[in-house]
């Protein structure tokens, strides 16, 4: 279900939406990286160590700085509200667990162990984001003496590079790069992102986060509840010609597409 936030100002409502969109991008990127670690552990190939190292690097460069930025901005404001004190104490505790999991992942030497820690990190982070979206943000934007927009001014780690752009448009458009229409093809072992399980309001942002984490020559398989032509148009607008798109399945229950990032 989409989260409804009642704000005291338009600026705060826009700021809350921007944070939710960035949360979705982070979740999408993390899910893709974790799927790579798990797939490498299952296959037993040579990709386990590069996948683990890439996930650790992403966490240290993106996830952990995001958490620290929250503790300097949103969390103190929420902690100052009577109804937010215990909630924020618990959220800070979860940050500590997230950091420990990242360090445990960095120290993991066995692929199966790395996969288990990565999966635990993903589950905790997604649960953590849900509480921020559904509890912390509504608490802040409803407080008359708190300006969420003011708290987040210039905070790249909380809003991301393009999180202020609305990610949910549904207008028709062309696909990303070349879209194959000559029939279905087989996936090349890329990780799968099932967008049907993602709330509509943050669905596109989640997919963008996953696509941003795809390296040249890599890809992902997207599962959508309909032919995602509007999404493909947005992908092309964000990164013209960056992805080769092939349909693996064309409904009626699901559409499966393979998106491969072209070499630079």
What's this model, at a glance?
This protein has helices at 10-43, 48-72, 74-79, 85-107, 111-142, 148-151, 156-159, 200-212, 229-238, and strands spanning 179-180, 192-194, 219-224, 243-250, 255-261. The chain is of the alpha/beta class. Helix 8 links the parallel strand 2 and strand 3 (219-224).
Within the largest sheet, what's the order of strands?
Answer: 1-4-5-3-2
Assign an overall shape: globular
- State mean pLDDT (0 to 100 scale): 84
Radius of gyration: 19 Å
Tell me the structural class.
alpha/beta
- Note the total helix count: 9
How many domains? Answer: 2
Largest sheet: 5 strands, mixed
H/E element string?
HHHHHHHEEHEHEE
Strand proportion, as a percent range, falls in 5-15%
* Poorly predicted tracts of residues: 162-175, 177-186
Helix content: 55-70%
State the distance separating the first and last CA atoms: 38 Å
**Count of distinct strands:** 5
């Amino acid at each position: 279900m989409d989260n409804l936030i009642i704000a005291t100002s338009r600026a705060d409502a826009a700021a809350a939406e921007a944070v939710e969109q960035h949360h979705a991008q982070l979740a999408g990127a993390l899910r893709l990286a974790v799927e790579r670690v798990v797939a490498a552990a299952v296959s037993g190939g040579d990709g386990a160590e590069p996948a683990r190292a890439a996930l650790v690097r992403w966490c240290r460069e993106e996830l952990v700085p995001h958490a620290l930025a929250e503790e300097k901005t949103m969390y103190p404001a929420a902690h100052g509200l009577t109804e937010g004190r215990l909630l924020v104490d618990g959220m800070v505790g979860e940050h500590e667990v997230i950091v420990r999991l990242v360090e445990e992942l960095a120290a993991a030497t066995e692929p199966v162990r790395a996969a288990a820690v990565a999966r635990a990190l993903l589950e905790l982070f997604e649960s953590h984001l849900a509480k921020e979206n559904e509890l912390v943000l509504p608490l802040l934007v409803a407080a008359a003496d708190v300006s969420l927009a003011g708290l987040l001014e210039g905070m790249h780690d909380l809003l991301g590079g393009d999180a202020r752009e609305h990610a949910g448009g549904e207008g028709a458009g062309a696909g990303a790069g070349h879209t194959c229409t000559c029939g279905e093809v087989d996936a090349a072992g890329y990780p799968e992102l099932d967008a049907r399980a993602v709330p509509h309001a943050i669905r596109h942002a989640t997919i963008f986060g996953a696509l941003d984490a795809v390296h040249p020559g890599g890809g992902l398989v997207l599962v959508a509840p309909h032919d995602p032509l509007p999404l493909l148009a947005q992908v092309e607008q964000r990164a013209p010609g960056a992805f080769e798109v092939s349909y693996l399945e064309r409904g009626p229950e699901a559409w499966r597409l393979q998106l491969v990032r072209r070499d630079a």
